Amino acid sequence: MAEEKIVISSPLTSEVIEKLKAGIQVLISGTIYSARDAAHRWLIQALDKGEKLPFDIKGQTIYYMGPSPARHGQIIGSAGPTTSSRMDMSTPRLIEAGLKGMIGKGERSSAVKDALKKHKAVYFVTIGGAGALLSKSIKKSEPVAYEELGAEAILKLTVENFPAIVCNDIYGEDFFEQARTQYCRGG
Amino acid sequence: MREIKTSVITEAVARLCQEVNFELGEDVVTALKKAEQVEESSLGKEVLKQLLENARIAKKESLPLCQDCGMAVVFLEIGQDVHIVGGNLYKAVEEGVRRGYTDGYLRKSMVNQPFSARVNTKDNTPPVIHTEILPGDRLKITLLAKGGGAENMSRLVMLKPGEGRQGVIDFVAMAVEEAGGKACPPLIIGVGIGGTVDTVMLLAKKALLRKVGDPNPEPEIAELEKEIFNRVNNLGIGPLGFGGRVTALAVHAKVLPSHIASLPVAVNLQCHSARHKEILI
User: Fold this and answer.
1) Which residue ranges make up each domain of chain B?
2) Contact B46 A150 (CB under 8 A)
3) Residues in CB range of B61: below 8 A, 6 or more apart
4) In chain A, where are the structural domains located?
5) Residues 100-119 of A with CB under 8 A from B
6) Is residue A106 within 8 Å of B185, Cβ to Cβ?
7) Which helix (H) or strand (E) holds B54?
């Protein structure tokens, strides 16, 4: 992406989170966890039952992604973001449990935006439909939990310079709203 | 009477599943290149460039364009003088999908019981199959690998006839606005107008199969497509919702007669990774 990008690492620290304002382009390196629809349902069920989550979610970043299968010798198959709004119903609970970063595509609900603000967490967007390209930023992939879910299993991913944009920050700003207002014409 | 073996059909479907997921159609590539030229937002331009790069990598490495390799929607246009031999036609298509998705390392995205257990069928079956009987002795198989994100943002309404043309335009624009970045714009917008509640969405889906940007041959419908196109591209949503001019690559509308009481309108959204291909046997 064209403009200046800031390099950050995951897990995110509170100092970094404070610097992340909506619209800023970032390159993320470090550890992130994949989890989408089914894994979210299972994580919430675990919280409901008072069980320990299969990974320590405190300070971590979740990538809404279910990859295509890796061929022999590949780290991962195609690995782009899925639509984040389907996770909206689970996200505030996970943020309360300590989740600090989320990566996906598309707009979030106001409940999620409020939770981000209240608990100082950040939502990033990346390029939907660019799974082949984005897979190149993933350097390692290990299953962590729920392997029986196949493509929906939780994976621990090591990423290098994974491109994203800060979408919703701790200040209540929204990149999508800003972008749309800037380019909207007439009615 | 011309005989076509089911084994030929299975093989054709399997091949199509892989080809559509690895190679973006020339028409879509051309539309993305054109979009990159007209896009005003520098970020939007950059994103379009990356989508073209994504397509280049996918083709070169036989890596799926998108991790969502889609639900297999298969359109069969069967000539009435064709005799299918060697087994059940639908099973042959299903086997093709199974093989294509398994051998191609494509993601299997189908769950059996959608409102509770949601257990993955592990081979991307069953496909959705639409059949049509036409004159002639050929069989045309069109495979559309339809991703879930854009499908989820599709909409249907039964307008009052009095709402007319403007009602249609407003409804499509509203659907696109609500979809925002979720449906992976720039979109190809399939619009069905008329028919019944069941046929109107199929009409919208079939409209997605047209070569990107080719107008409806009927001037009045082509004019409507143009007006909707301009309207949605003024919404400011832009590539992936990151802001910009190019929210739609094209609007494709198809029309059917309808009841005196009805004006059905369906919007089937197609993400920029528009993956479909046909084969004539």
Assistant:
1) 2-20+65-146, 149-273
2) no
3) A132
4) 32-48+57-67+75-137+166-187
5) 105-107
6) no
7) helix B42-61
Query: In residues, how long is chain A?
Result: 187
Q: Does B230 touch chain A (CB under 8 A)?
A: no
Interface test with B, best of A45, A87, A183, A185 (most B CBs within 10 A): A183
Amino acid residing at A60: Q
With beta carbons less than 8 A apart as the criterion, state whether A135 and A94 touch: no
Q: Which of A40, A100, A105, A113 is catalytic?
A: A40
Q: Among B40, B120, B241, select the one facing A150 at the smallest CB separation.
A: B120
| Disruptive mutation site among B46, B106, B240 for chain A (greatest number of A CBs within 10 Å) | B240
Answer whether B56's CB lies under 8 Å from B119's CB: no
What pLDDT score was predicted for residue A3? 64
State the pLDDT at residue A2. 47
Query: CATH code for B149-273?
Result: 3.30.1330
Mean pLDDT along residues B131-160: 97
User: Tell me: the pLDDT tens digits for B203-255?
Assistant: 999 999 999 989 999 999 999 999 999 999 999 999 999 999 999 999 999 99
User: What confidence tens digit (pLDDT) does each residue in A143-187 have?
Assistant: 999 999 999 999 999 999 999 999 999 999 999 999 999 999 865
A161 touches chain B (CB under 8 A): no
Does B206 contact A at CB distance below 8 Å?
Answer: no
- What distance in Å separates the CA atoms of residue B147 and residue B72, rounded to the nearest whole number? 9
Whether domain A32-48+57-67+75-137+166-187 has CATH 3.20.130.10: yes
Decide if A40 is catalytic.
Answer: yes
The secondary element (H helix, E strand) that includes residue A63 is strand A61-63
Of B68, B182, B236, the CB nearest to A85: B182
The CA distances from residue A51 to A39, A46, A47, A56, in Å, are 15, 5, 6, 12
Query: What are A64-109's pLDDT values in tens digits?
Result: 999 999 999 999 999 999 999 999 999 999 999 999 999 999 999 9
Sheet of B128-134, strands arranged across: B128-134, B71-79, B139-146, B275-280
